[in-house]
Amino acid sequence: MHVQHHNAHLPRSVQAQAARLVLQANLAYGESNSNGLSYVQRLKARFECREYLDQALALEPENAAALGLLGRVEMDDGQLEKAHALFNASLNSQPGQAQQYCNLGYWALKSERPALAEEYFLRALECDRQSAAAFCGVAHAKRLQGQFDVAYLHYRKLLQTGSRWDSVYSGMLTCAQHLQIHKADTDLAQDAIALLRKDGLPHQEIGRFVGAIIQQQYDLDNPNAEVFLDAAAEDELLILALQKTLMPNASVEELVVMLRRAIMAEVAQTASLRDELQPLCLAIAEYADRTGYALAAEDDEERLAATINDSIVAQFAVREPQEALIGSLMISAMYGALFHQSFAMQLGQWNLVDWPLAMQPMIAASYYSRAEEEAIKQNFDEKAEELCLAKTDVPQAWPAWSQLAYRTETSLKAVMAQELGLNTDNLPATLRILVCGAQSGQRAMELAQYLDDVEVIAVDESLANIAKATRMAQTLNMDNIVFWPWSIAQRFVADGHQVHWVEVGRLPSPAMTELSLAALINSASIAGAVVHMHTSMAEQTAGDKQIRRLIAEHQLQPTRTSLRQLRRMVLANKRDAVWANLLKDDDFYSLGGCRDRWFRPQDAAQLKELLALVSNEVEWKLVKARDEDGHSLATAPVQRQIQAEALGSEVQSLMGQNLSVYFQRRR
Hints:
This protein has helices at residues 12-32, 39-59, 64-76, 80-93, 98-110, 114-127, 132-144, 148-160, 166-176, 186-197, 207-217, 229-233, 236-244, 250-270, 278-290, 299-317, 322-335, 344-347, 360-377, 412-418, 442-450, 463-475, 486-494, 517-524, 542-554, 560-572, 580-583, 591-599, 604-614, 635-646; strands at residues 431-436, 454-459, 481-484, 499-504, 525-534, 620-626, 660-665.
C-alpha cells in the first residue's frame, strides 16, 4: 500500500465513510455491467454509481479509487477526455496502481491506439504480475494490432488459468479466423473443441479454422491417407464441427462425402445402422442440411436413399412404431430434407420433443424448422413465384448461422454520440433502423438485440432469407424487428414513414428492376439520419464471372441439379487458378450461397447510384470512414474521392476499396 500523505489530515471516520461509499459505487458499477440485467436497469445502476462517487469525492476529493472508478463511468459514457484526466488524477493521488494502468489501456483501445494500450497494460503487469485484466488487455491490444497469433496464445493462457470471460472466448474466436494452420496440432484441436462447446458464440465464424485443423489431422492433402470410419465416428472435433459450422474447405467436403458413402455402404450390407455410427450420421445430416444439400452423391447412393425413403413410406402404411423408423430417417436425412419427402405429412403427427434427444437438432433442421419457414412464406405475395418450382429447387436461406456475435448491450443514440460524434439531443426515445439486403438476418438481429432504443426493419429479396430470419427472431423472442420483402418496404416508405439509420448490406440483384435503392434511401431518411454502407461488392472472383458466362451461354436455371453440376465442375478442376478465390469463399459451400452469387448477383449500378446520392455535399456529410481492418481514416480525402468520382473524374474509384463509410443527412 502507498501512503496517501495528502489525506493524512482527514479524520479516520471521514476516510471510512468515503471508503464505504466507494464500495457501494463498485457494487453499483458491477450491476451496471451485468449481462443478466436489462439496459434500463444497467443505466439506473450506473446513475447510482455516479451518485455514490460524487458523495465520496465530496468527502475526500483525492480518493484514488473513487477517481479511477469515475473515470471508468465517464469512459463507458463516451467521455474519453474526462476519463483520461480522472485516471491520471487517480495515479497522481496513489502511484503504482495496476488498476489505473489497465483503465488507461482500455482508454487507449477506445481511442483506437492499440500500441499505446499495450504499453499501459504492460505497466499494469509490472505493478501486479497476477493481473488477469491486464494480461487480457495485452491480448486485446495485440489482436487490434493484427498480431493474431500472439493474441491467440494470450487468450489460450487466460482460459487455462481460469479466466473464462465472454470477452476472452470472443477474442480467441476472432483471432482463430486469421490463423494459418500448416500442421496437425493437438493443442489447436483442443482449443477448437473448447470454442465449439462454448454456448453463445457465433460458431459459424470459425468454420475455416476448424476445417483447416481437420484437413491436417486427416492428412487430406495426401492421396494415400487412410480414413477409418470407426475413428471418425469417435472424433469429437469432427462431430462438433459438422453440428455447428460450415467448413469452406474442398478437402473436408470430400471427407464428409466419403464418410457418408461409407456409412451408406455398411447399411446396404448389414441392413442396419450401428449405434456407434449414429452420432456421426446425425452430424452429417445436419451438415448436409446446412449446405442446402450441396454434397455430391453417386448414382448408387441416390438409388439406395430412394429405396430407404420408399421403405419409410411402407413402414408408415403398416403403422410401425416411431422407434422402428429412426435409423431409416437418419440415413434419409443425410441425402435430402425430410420435409421434402413424400412421407413428410406423416412425420407431423409427432412434436419435436417426442423424438430422442440426440436426434432433435437434426430433425428440427430437416423438418420442423422448414415447416415453420414455409408457413411464414405464405404471408407474402412473393410466395407465388415458388409454387411452380420442384421442392428441392426452392431456394434455401443464406448465410447459414446459428448464434449472434457477442456484443455488449448499448443504445443507438450512444453509438451515434460516441462513435460518430453526433448530437442526439433531439432524437425520439425509439429510433428506426432500415437494414437493406439483410440476407438471413444475423447483422439485423444483432442491431435489434444489442441496441435497446431501436426498432428494426430488415429487407431482403430472398423469401427464404425472410422466412429463416423471422423464425430465428421468434425463437429469440425478439419483438422489435420485422423482416420484409422489398415490395412491402417500398410501400412503407411511400406511405411517408421515415428512418433514423440505414444499414446497407447485400445489394439488390439486377432482377429487382423496379427498385432504386438510392431513391428508397433518399425518401426514407429523415434529416440527421445516418447511412452506413460499404464501397465494395463481394462475389466478383474470376470464377464467378466464368460461371455467370456459362449460365448465360447455356441459359441455365437455378435448379439443384444445375447448381450441383456447376460446383462439381469447379471441384473437379480445383487446382486451376481461375477457381482459387471462389473455392476460398464460404458461399461456394452452400447451394444457397452459390444460387445468390451466380443467379442473383449484386447489381453494381445500384452501388454507383447510391454513391452518387451521398456525394452531394449539400445534402450529405461524411462523418466516419474505416478501412478493412476497422481503422478510422481521415474523412476529407475520402469525401474528395467520392465527389470526384460522382463528377466522372478519372481518380482511383472508391468502388472495390472496401471502405466502411457513414454519411449523415444534413437536412
